[in-house]
Design a protein that fits this description.
This protein is an alpha+beta fold. It folds into four domains: about 100 residues, Rossmann fold, CATH 3.40.50; about 180 residues, Tumour Suppressor Smad4 (Sandwich); about 220 residues, Glycerol uptake facilitator protein; about 60 residues. Helices cover about 45% and strands about 20% of the residues. It has a 15-stranded mixed β-sheet that branches. A four-stranded mixed β-sheet has the order 16-17-18-19. Helix 10 packs across helix 13 and helix 12 packs across helix 18.
Length: about 625
């Protein structure tokens, strides 16, 4: 039977003899560790290790080559070993358990032939490492604050990564974390759920945020919750070996020790170490080695690699051209004046015109859904954001074509339909105000987001209904057919309000989603903002008038003057002010009583007005 040994550091001789050795039930031979004169014991020897991380990695290397059975004991300077082997805090309990434990074979992780106890970090790991979320609330807050402070100085590195299956990928990373397994840490609960200490595979986490805001959001969420979900910027590779290379020397941390190298070869040696596991160490039997897996769909590639490498992270993520080629092609197609576009414009205009004459909201809503105007407006927004002259010109051409078609067919319809009546639906589009601009801005954000995100595209019909582009054009065309400047100008102002609001907010949305840097987008945004400011001038006056009318109605509605109740009050800001009121009285009112009532209301409002009243007798 092989002997049992207790390896310890020279300065722990007294502690070992007085407190640790008496804990063992059988004979254990004490041996002071000397890296210059390593022991040579026969295979199968049981070696209990009371050592720091630095010495322990050397002993494990020796144990693997000489086929010892290792039992790791908790040591105050062995924090990485504690996480890797799930060691207990109590030395007494640890010794008691390992004496009864059965031998298991586990994998051994090496970096450039050196043993890795816990983890290997290239760049910045933030909290994405074993033990990164096991700290107290106060420690997590301090750690989060330190991470937030350094986000602005972080520069992604351009790295080449080759896996055991000879898959080679070049990308730009903020950080890279490699571990053998994640048991005993919060990572195993949400991110590395299929991790084992004896499956012959290592785990690598590639950290590649595109912006400061993306990283900031993750750090805040991680601070408030111990269990975190896999963030979008995190890619995962599971392989038997990984090689990491860089053109210049790279700084990395080997179990917390800073080192430098141009290339790192990280290998997982399958069941290379025999151990007596701690009570909390998870080691499943009959684990089948899985195939190499890669979850790297969100890694920077193509133009994005050079755009991110060796530069501070931008505040907002910037998408490279090849990353949104499909969206850009869709927007180019939408900016084209096609026969389908003209046909839909004609049909939607005629449908809206009939709905306006009939004052039918369902018919008008149908025209809103049918109208194709939203597509070239969103294309115009992208053209202004990315300063693309061809896309901007094509979009403007399509918009002008749609505008002319709508005005022409609506005016023609007004000649055919023998009605020159301002219906409620027509009147509703003659006095736009700041509320209409607000609707346009929100709709522009929704429209741009729906184009940029496939899962939100189903909401485009709702956006079209909300912003209603064709009905005001149809009203403007009707006004031209009637030769009524007030109708035509009011409706055209509403259309221009919608157009300016959508273009500006959609351009801002594309900027926020990273489709252009601010330096490129600022000229287009300035033009769109100027258009919004320009149309806002008459809207402010209209909104003030609307607000004034609402205040008058609020002051008079439900009040009683001279035993007459004012009901259904409507104010119209003409010169002078016009009040439309229902008067509820117990008896008929004479001209003198009406004059007294008007004087009382005028005293209340402190301004002259014309009164249009209907009298209701209630008995």
């Amino acid at each position: 039977m092989a002997d049992s040994f207790l390896l310890f550091e020279p300065d722990a001789t007294e502690l070992v003899s007085q407190k640790i050795q008496p804990l063992f039930e059988s004979v254990v031979l004490p041996k002071s560790w000397d890296c210059n004169e390593p022991p040579e014991w026969e295979a199968g020897s049981i070696v209990y290790c009371y050592l720091s991380d630095k010495d322990l990695s050397q002993v494990i290397d020796l144990a693997s080559s000489q086929q010892w059975v290792v039992a790791i004991l908790p040591h105050p300077k062995a924090s990485h070993a504690k996480r890797a082997f799930s060691l207990a805090n109590s030395l007494d309990k640890a010794v008691q358990h390992v004496q009864q434990a059965e031998v298991v074979q586990i994998d051994l992780l090496r970096c450039n032939q050196e043993v890795v106890l816990n983890h290997l970090v290239v760049g910045h790991s933030f909290n994405l490492r074993p033990g990164g979320h096991n700290a107290s609330w106060r420690q997590r807050m301090l750690q989060t604050w330190q991470n937030i402070r350094k986000i602005g100085q972080i520069k992604p590195q351009k790295l080449t990564i080759t896996t055991a299956s000879e898959t080679c990928l070049e990308t730009s990373l903020v950080g890279l974390v490699l571990i053998e397994h994640a048991h005993g840490s919060m990572l195993s609960k949400q991110i590395l759920t299929d991790t084992h200490c004896n499956d012959g595979m290592l785990e690598s986490m590639l950290i590649a945020p595109r912006s400061i805001m993306e990283m900031f959001r993750f750090l805040l969420l991680a601070m408030f919750g111990r269990v975190i979900r896999k963030p979008r910027f995190l890619s995962l590779i599971k392989s038997k070996a990984i090689t990491i290379s860089k053109e210049q020397e790279m700084v990395y941390w080997h179990d917390g020790l800073e080192k430098t190298a141009k290339a790192l070869t990280v290998e997982c040696e399958h069941k290379a170490l025999s151990v007596l596991p701690a009570a909390d160490m998870v080691c499943q039997e009959n684990v089948v080695a899985v195939k190499e897996s890669r979850k790297i769909s969100h890694l920077p590639e193509g133009e994005a690699i050079n755009a991110l490498a060796a530069r501070p992270l931008p505040w907002i993520a910037h998408a490279a051209t090849d990353e949104f080629r499909e969206l850009y092609q869709l927007l180019r197609d939408n900016a084209t004046t096609s026969p389908a576009f003209v046909t839909l414009m004609v049909l939607s205009t005629l449908l809206a015109t009939i709905g306006l004459y009939a004052s039918s909201a369902p018919v008008i809503i149908g025209a809103m859904i049918l109208a194709p105007l939203m597509a070239p407006i969103i294309s115009l927004s992208m053209g202004l954001t990315r300063q693309d002259p061809s896309l901007t010109t094509a979009s403007l051409g399509t918009l002008i074509t749609g505008l002319c078609v709508a005005l022409g067919f609506a005016a023609s319809a007004s000649f055919i339909i023998p009605m020159e009546v301002v219906t409620p639906e027509i009147a509703a589009r003659l006095s736009p105000n700041l509320l209409d601009l607000g609707v346009a801005i929100i709709s522009g954000i929704a429209g741009a987001y729906a184009h940029a995100r496939i899962d939100a595209a189903k909401s485009l019909a709702g956006v079209a209904i909300a912003v209603a582009l064709v009905p005001p054009l149809a009203v403007a065309g009707i006004g031209l057919g009637w030769l009524d400047a007030s109708v035509a100008s009011g409706a055209l102002l509403l259309f221009l309000t919608n157009l300016a609001g959508i273009v500006f907010s959609a351009a801002l949305t594309f900027l926020a989603l990273g489709y252009a840097p601010f330096t490129r987008a600022k000229k287009g945004l300035t033009i769109a903002l100027a258009a919004v400011v320009l149309v806002s001038v008459p809207l402010v006056f209209s909104f003030n008038r609307l607000s004034e009318e609402a205040q008058i109605v609020q002051r008079l509605q439900g009040k009683t003057f001279n035993e007459v109740l004012l009901r259904t009050v409507r104010a119209q800001s003409t010169k002078p002010l016009t009040l439309h009121v229902q008067l509820v009285s117990a008896k008929a009112l004479s001209d003198q009583q009406l004059d007294l009532l008007k004087d009382s209301i005028q005293t209340e409002l402190k301004r002259p007005f014309d009164l249009e009243a209907s009298i209701i007798i209630r008995r």
